[in-house]
């Protein structure tokens, strides 16, 4: 099953609505009543489909080709943003965008993972899978934030870190670990928002922050479902079953204490009204930054440490 299967009945209604609008414009006939009726059916169908989503459906929505990416959010959320390139070690990585921005009363360092819209951009961005230089670019921003006492915002959207031979040779595991350590040591407010896929160490490298938020239809998992299925059943086609077992939805992550809040999306997903969802993310980010800014540097570090130390702690009752 893919996203086209999930949205097929909705797409058929939208095609019919568009055809009626074109007919009305060409002939001058009043089709407003028929259009309104179809729009009502579309809204009811959206509510019906999105009220019973399964984990694999959330994966498909998180990967939707029209879903807004990090730069789409930054353009709406920030009054000003200056992108910075390079890791200062001889490389740059298109999968990671980083820079300095202004959002409301806050000046902050922003790091995001960026996928591509078309084949050319996807190749440039490596489908959002960062290489070592991507995380080293992020660390450059983290150190800059510490130096100038700027809050840090990370926008997470990656299936996983780049698994290629070149990345392994340049130390992808070390870069991920260093990025996590840098975030843990920062004495400034840190916040991450999982806007699409939060996959494996590629995501946690930018999500070791004071607060972690998730969009309603984003996913957060130790491994992509296809990778999990390939390991457990030697069959990547069992991804749907793996998604059920991975507890990767926003509701699962909140119940397990892995995140601190869920940001609601518009009916039908963020791709249907990117502007509105971006403004909701902005409001949530500003609220969190206001709360975190009231804490001392020592309190920020201690709270971050305690947050991650309690993950996975459980009590067995006989």
List the helices and strands and how they pair.
Layout: H1 3-27, H2 32-50, H3 55-62, H4 70-77, E1 80-84, E2 96-103, E3 106-113, H5 119-125, H6 132-148, E4 152-158, H7 165-169, H8 172-185, E5 190-199, H9 200-204, E6 211-215, E7 219-221, H10 225-232, H11 239-246, H12 250-255, E8 261-263, H13 274-293, H14 297-309
Parallel strand pairs: 3-4, 4-5, 5-6, 5-7, 6-8
Antiparallel strand pairs: 1-2, 2-3
Helix pairs in contact: 1-2, 4-13, 6-8, 10-11
Please characterize this protein's 3D structure.
The chain is an alpha/beta fold. It has two domains: 3-52; 60-309, 2-enoyl-CoA Hydratase, Chain A, domain 1 (Alpha-Beta Complex), CATH 3.90.226. It is 51% helix and 15% strand. The protein has helices at residues 3-27, 32-50, 55-62, 70-77, 119-125, 132-148, 165-169, 172-185, 200-204, 225-232, 239-246, 250-255, 274-293, 297-309, and strands at residues 80-84, 96-103, 106-113, 152-158, 190-199, 211-215, 219-221, 261-263. Strands 1, 2, 3, 4, 5, 6, 7 and 8 form an eight-stranded mixed β-sheet that branches. A hairpin with a 2-residue loop joins strand 2 (96-103) and strand 3 (106-113). Helix 1 packs antiparallel against helix 2 (32-50) and helix 10 packs across helix 11 (239-246). The longest helix has 25 residues, at 3-27. The relative contact order is 0.12. The mean pLDDT is 92.
Largest sheet: 8 strands, mixed
Q: Which value, in Å, is the CA radius of gyration?
A: 21 Å
Total separate domains:
2
CATH class of the largest domain: Alpha Beta
Helical stretch count? 14
How many extended strands? 8
């Amino acid at each position: 099953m893919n996203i086209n299967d999930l949205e097929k009945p909705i797409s058929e209604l939208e095609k019919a609505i568009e055809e009626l609008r074109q007919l009305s414009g060409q002939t001058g006939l009043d089709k407003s009543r028929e259009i309104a009726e179809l729009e009502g059916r579309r809204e009811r169908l959206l509510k019906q489909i999105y009220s019973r989503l399964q984990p694999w459906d959330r994966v498909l929505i998180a990967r939707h080709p029209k879903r807004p990416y990090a730069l789409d959010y930054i353009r709406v959320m920030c009054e000003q943003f200056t992108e910075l390139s390079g890791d200062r070690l001889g490389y740059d990585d298109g999968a990671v965008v980083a820079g300095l921005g202004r959002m409301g009363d806050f000046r902050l360092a922003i790091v995001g993972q960026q996928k591509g819209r078309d084949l050319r951009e996807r190749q440039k961005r490596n489908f959002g899978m960062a290489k070592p230089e991507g995380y080293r670019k992020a660390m450059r921003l983290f150190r800059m934030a510490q130096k100038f006492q700027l809050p840090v915002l990370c926008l997470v959207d990656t299936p996983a870190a780049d698994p290629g031979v070149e990345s392994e040779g340049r130390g992808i595991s070390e870069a991920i670990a260093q990025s996590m350590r840098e975030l843990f040591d920062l004495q400034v407010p840190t916040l991450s928002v999982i806007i699409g896929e939060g996959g494996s160490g590629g995501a946690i490298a930018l999500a070791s922050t004071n607060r972690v938020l998730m969009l309603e239809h984003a996913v957060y998992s130790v491994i992509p479902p296809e990778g999990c299925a390939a390991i457990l059943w030697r069959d990547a086609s069992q991804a749907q079953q793996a998604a059920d077992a991975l507890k990767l939805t926003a509701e699962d992550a909140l119940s397990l204490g892995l995140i601190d809040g869920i940001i609601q999306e518009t009916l039908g997903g963020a791709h249907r009204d990117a502007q509105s969802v971006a403004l909701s993310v902005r409001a949530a980010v500003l609220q969190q930054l206001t709360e975190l800014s009231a804490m001392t540097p020592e309190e920020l570090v201690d709270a971050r440490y305690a947050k991650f130390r309690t993950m996975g702690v459980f009590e067995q009752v006989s």
